[in-house]
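re: that chain from earlier
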Amino acid sequence: MSGIHRIETSLGPVQAAFDVDGAVIYLGFADHEFRETLLAKLARLGPAPNPEPRAAARLRDQLEAYASGSRRAFDVPFRLHGSPFEQRVWGALQQIPFGETRSYGQLAAELGDANLSRAVGRANGANPVSILVPCHRVIGANGALTGYAGGLAMKERLLRLEGAPR
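^ sequence. v structure.
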């Protein structure tokens, strides 16, 4: 798909898509398959084949700083396109501090209804900008690692990098 940029990082290769202003609209791990629903959504958004020239370098630099432990938060611009509920979940994900985790149930309770843990899980899985919106910080109620688009080994690596308790 045109508009997908491969970026080599010490976390491994990532794929990113940007809008014309250089905001990230997709970020995922290149060694894992695109999720079909995200790919279809991305195609509708029309990623820019030639985004703002420094966008990919700025993203790579911040991912490298994160991987080395010298960055805890990102300030690269990104735009999230999703349903109102997905937007709420993604907003809640952004409130989970570096080095901390939440269960799906805890996140659902924070959103006002502890019975929505499965819906929270679906929205978490639909996150189009891994790492920037830290969906890797969500774990099972028993503390077990659960699904992650970058694979469970990467999820564990990111949590360990952040010093999150297990």
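Residues 10 and 46 are 28 Å apart (CA to CA).
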